[in-house]
Design brief:
mainly alpha, 13 helices, binds heme B/C, 35% helix, binds calcium ion, two-stranded antiparallel ribbon
């Protein structure tokens, strides 16, 4: 059968598959210029975290009990921010929501679509990230999500896997795919004494270092000891969530976890898949319009998997029974001290 070329030409001359996406060009440019400054920095990380905290709040299990289970990626976290940012796991997102609100208001986009779109635009600044899929057409929330649906860093693996299974029938491998996001991430509010401490040594790159470095033995707390959900760090300046430490070592998740340390093509493929699936939570995907071609192409990865200076295979707590931990070069020089993510 003949295929019809449905390409649309936008006012600025850009050719896109779907004409409805032309309106997103100026939203992208506004975000890139005035929010992200084309960087995979603090704001890009926050935008990505926001996509998750909006989307994961959906529970078929609660619905089965006759309760409201939340609407998933429905913008509820921004529309009902007073309610939802007061939920414990959403700490810090009150400020994030308000910093993005003027962009949403002048975007002309629905709130749910805007959240997923801004997260995708921000992530596109991270070298190593896949080209993400992004779409529009979600229905905005009319009520806030219930509390208790966003995972916490002090949750055990059973609890985390059960939450992902309920939210979107995600299995234990898919749960690991979600955590690729923590390769471009830091903490601000779990331990405020070490605000902006990243989860790996390359928070501005979506690479496998997060998966390598979470497998290293914890040596000490970089901030305050004894905070719920915090594990000992392997490297100065780096922050480890207890949930990440446990997922790296659980026999259901450890092999998938380890695989992302050295397989960038797989990492990209799985994150592309899971980001799209996350943005479809609570929505019939057949009603969405694909606007992926509005997104910038992420820069290529220029680094190779490695141990930070000062550590070696002797510091690895390998947890995958099937596959030995890969052989990696160690960065030269004195022991790495990871710098905080710059704040502006
Ligand atoms: Fe995440 C961050 C937890 C998943 C993305 N985290 C974060 C934090 C925490 C968490 C606690 C810190 C906060 C502050 O600020 O302090 N997560 C978590 C958990 C989980 C998760 C528990 C489950 C397991 N994430 C996730 C996902 C995603 C994410 C899925 C997406 C997709 N996060 C994120 C990011 C970040 C985070 C991006 C960073 C932010 C910034 O930097 O700001
Ligand atoms: Ca939501
Ligand atoms: Ca990284």
């Amino acid at each position: 059968a003949a295929t019809v070329n449905r390409r649309a030409t936008c006012a600025d001359g850009t050719q896109l598959v779907n004409a409805e996406c032309c309106a997103l060009i100026k939203v992208r440019d506004d975000l890139q210029k005035n929010m992200f400054r084309n960087e995979c920095g603090d704001e890009a990380h926050e935008a990505l975290r926001l996509t998750f905290h909006d989307a994961i709040a959906i529970s078929p299990a609660l619905e089965a009990e006759g309760k409201f289970g939340g609407g998933g990626a429905d913008g509820s976290i921004m529309i009902f921010s007073k309610t939802e940012t007061a939920f414990h796991p959403n700490i810090g997102l009150d400020e994030v929501v308000e910093s993005f609100r003027p962009f949403q208001e002048r975007s002309g986009m629905g709130v749910a679509d805007f959240i997923q779109f801004s997260g995708a635009v921000g992530t596109s600044n991270c070298p190593g990230a896949p080209v993400l899929n992004v779409s529009i057409g979600r229905t905005d929330a009319t009520r806030p999500a219930p509390d208790g649906l966003v995972p916490e860093p002090f949750h055990d693996v059973d609890t985390i896997l059960a939450r992902f299974a309920d939210a979107g029938e995600f299995d234990e491998l898919e749960t690991v795919w979600f955590l690729i996001a923590h390769s471009v991430a830091a903490q601000n509010d779990i331990d405020p004494t070490v605000s902006h401490a990243p989860f790996d040594s390359t928070p501005e790159i979506m690479d496998g270092q997060f998966f390598i470095e979470t497998q290293l033995r914890g040596e000490g707390f970089i901030g305050k000891a004894g905070i719920e959900g915090v594990a000992k760090s392997p490297v100065r300046g780096e922050f480890r969530l207890q949930s990440d430490e446990l997922l790296a070592r659980d026999n259901r998740t450890a092999c998938e976890w380890q695989s992302f340390g050295t397989d960038q093509a797989k990492l990209q493929n799985r994150f592309q898949f899971i980001f799209q699936a996350m943005g479809e939570l609570g929505t019939d995907p057949t009603t969405l319009i694909d606007c992926s071609d509005v997104l910038p192409t992420p820069p290529d990865l220029t680094t190779v998997p490695h141990f930070p200076a000062g550590v070696s295979i002797n510091d690895v707590q390998a947890a995958c029974a099937e596959t030995p931990f890969p052989t990696l070069p160690t960065d030269p020089g004195p022991a790495t001290a990871v710098a905080p993510v710059p704040r502006d």
